[in-house]
Request: fold
Amino acid sequence: MKFMLRGASSAAILVGLAGALPAFAQVQTVTQPPAEAEADSSRDRVVVTGSFIQGTPEDAALPVEVFSQEELEEQGAPTALEFAKSLTISGPTTGEAYYFSGAQLTGSVQYNLRGLGSDKTLVLLNGRRMSQNTSNIPSAALARTEILKDGAAVIYGADATGGVVNFITRDDFVGLEVGAQYKAIAGSDGDYNFTILGGIGDDNVNFMWSAEYEHRSRLESEERDWAAGAYGVNPAPWSPLTNVASWLPRGTLPVTPDNTANGEFGLPTAGLIRDFTNSSCEAVGGVFNPNGVATGVPSCSYNYISYYNLVEENDIYRAFAQLNATINENMEFHFDASYGQVRSPQVFGSPAQPVIRGPGRSTGATYQFYAPATNPYVTQFLDAYAAANPLLYSAAARAGTQGVTPLTYRAFAHGGNPFFGAGNGYGVPSKIDNQIWRVSAGINGNLGDWAGMASDVGYDFAVTYNQSISYADSPDMIGYRFQEALAGFGGPNCSVADQNPNQFGTQNSTIGASAAARAAVGCYYWNPFASSFASQPELGLANPRYVAGNENRADVARWLFDDRATETINSSLTADLVFNGRSGIQLPGGEIGWAAGGQVRQIEFREVVNSPIYNGNLQCDWPTRFTTTQAGTTQSQIPLPTNDPRFTGCTPDAPGPFVFFGTNVPDYADQQQYSLFGELQIPVLDNFNLQAAVRREEFSAGIGATVYKVSGKWDVWGPLSVRGSYGTNYQAPPAGLIPGNINNGVLSYTRAAASWLGAQTVTRSDIVPETATAWNVGVIWQSEGFAPDHDLSIIVDYFNIETEDELGNLASTGQIADGVFRFNSGGVAFANQDGTLITGQTAVNNGTALADCSHPLIGRVTFNGGACVQGVTNALQLNSIRTDFGNGPGQSTAGFDVNMTYTLPLGPGNLSLNATATKVEIDKNTATVLDGFQVAPADNRLGFLNYATVGFASPKLRANFSINYSLEQHNFRLGAQYVTGVTDERGPVTPGGFLPGTTTPYGLTTYGVESGDWLAYDFTYLFRVTEDLRLTASINNITDEDPPASRQELGYDPRMGSPLGRTFEIGVKKTF
Reply:
């Protein structure tokens, strides 16, 4: 039986506690004698990040960086995303619109301290756990933010390897405060926010609430030249898989089909027929590549990034309530509730995804659809091609053609997709709605007289409930529906009987084959050719092959897609109990202090997938109502090995009916955690203090660990102090991890010219917890400056963190591809089997690299067309790669944190000079091993992009500088942010294809290979008009610097940089 109630019941307990105790407080305060000073002191909540023993954060034994709300206001009140990305200890950070790393993360900020991953950064609100998604942080109610730059699993439990972010709210605000900001952005309607904060109370009770609204406006990729780069500059956002394709004409359909394209759709009557020419391709903005799809098979590549946006429409709503009350002289009560919602109604993606699998019985991406000659658009296409190319497609071949199949295909590309964007774009958008709420209630104080000798022992008890409800969809085309539409049985109201059980799909001779006859019963033909669209709508380029009246119907287009919507619910209920006090043991430096306690936590993970097409009920390409002939009988599709005589195209991984993405069988999992811990503060000498802590944590499924930490500070003399710490950390597998689970996804493959292709991940059953060790040594100098009224503070810390058995893919599918495709077109190896380049060789990343068919991991690779043929099969024939999720390589990172502040009076005001920097000296992974084979050697990540579908950049240096001058009511701040550039380890690339209007091949492009350093200046002016009214004005990125170049789809790295350019911002805050 579970040890805790769940969901609404858990929240009800907290709300009930919140209601009952203040009522009790009101009764108690009636009888209390007036003691205002004591009440103020007792209600001044002291939250020390990283310890349950009081200390001064920034110069204590633990490295804590503190940002007061006043400091942030002087910086122009950065948004949550701007603040997170500005931290010098941050790694790649989510929140910007970046479909390729997950549309569902748009607007949702997750901290990634030390670049170890957001799952290794613990986020707290008032010292209590909260969701990794910090969208419900009440910025208007904050007093300060503390960043612990050290591991803290001993104090807070697992998942604090990289550090801790602790948001601390105000205690005793009384009044009403309203604020607003507007940021002007070139090419956008701008970003803006509104806040309101209210508070009432007296010395014993304070109630505070806030509400906030934050909006970001759409910024299209065409508004920035560096994002809409030419193919020869940045080929990353270009794909050869489009809707202007090469088609193979075929003869009579076989009576009894088999599992080959010829055996299912008939023998070819001629060679491939192209639906484009060089000139028609270039007219719609495409690039003609004579070897784009396969050697000798041209493509008309299209730039899909014009359908994406650099910033998406995004709305964030926040609400917060807090109650602090003095119940009696030995008990304080605290309650807070927070809510956040992040909504992006449209996160635009491609007009359609490419076909990497389909309803054809042969596996792979090729020849997956069949358009019969009864389709009037097929007839029109074939007649026109035969007339223009009689030598390539003879009259006899034309007469014998009964249908056509595309070699590769994408239903929408060059012409966009006008049916889903509601007038805001021509891609297919995802809808994002993330809701995060949290309730926490607790009491703290001293045990009091009833406890006798333990009367001075302090206690702190709290219960915290967190829940995030995330809705996200990512529409994809349903393959069998597209096949039905090609055959003239498309549309939401088309329902006719299938008269041929020997072949998949609807065959019905009762109704006529003409378009009019089909339309009469609600069925329609689909036009899959270039004649169906008038232009490339984002760029305004006319299509010369367009035929008026050949457009496809909107209702049929929408019927082809399923939203693929998932609602994911993560919840946790945590109970913490801590006692603290003095031991009675005196040392030369004072009395030993102690803290001890425990934590109980229930974690639940649940998915809701309502679509029967997406939730795994439909395991194969064809629903069970369709049958085909195999093994001497007619049967529905079921998942089977390819060598099973009953196999009809559905592989054992149950890929489902979508052409690109997989299905999602909804999961449920829960996890229980129990822990005990103890902490000692040991004042060895007046100038030497130690802290030691140990924690034992047990998780369900028999997983557990003991972690410890020792830290200390030595005040050497006068202004000089030395501090240090050493400890271990631990992270259990997440609750939603299901052994044996198969996830079918898609990734970008460098070897395959950055094409997005299939990637399958299988969760292993031998997963063990991650572990880590972390140590830190620091020097603190605090003294006068060059004059007695000057203040100087310098803090330098060296950090070192090493992790083992990190949870993730044992090897990325990109790493496997780099090792398998290792021969150039001449058959000479340019890379070793582990993917490392042979000395003096250059990687071949344009799709022409040949496969090593004897590679140890070749069994994990699926090719279009079947088996690997040595010397023939190249990266353009890659379909998908399978890897394992489990305990992978460990990571080591080390470097220096530097904080310097110099303040002095200057003229009638005060000048402050500040510098914060993080200089990373080590960032590397251990060797990557899969199936006993070393996929990649130990990897130096430092200074590289570390590209794996998206960038995981590791710059060597990040620094922030500022000059602040305060003059009575005025404050002037000039700030600078500096980040060193990174090297794209993929190196330069030579894109395939011809320069527009020529037959001249493209040359080498080095775009983003060296990203270049980032240096941007900001200026903020703060005018305190009165005590109750403040005005701010800011210019961000004064010199209008472009973000560092990166050969990724958007032309920059959204997890590190900003697409906005120079912006102008004004703000106002009024207190009543």
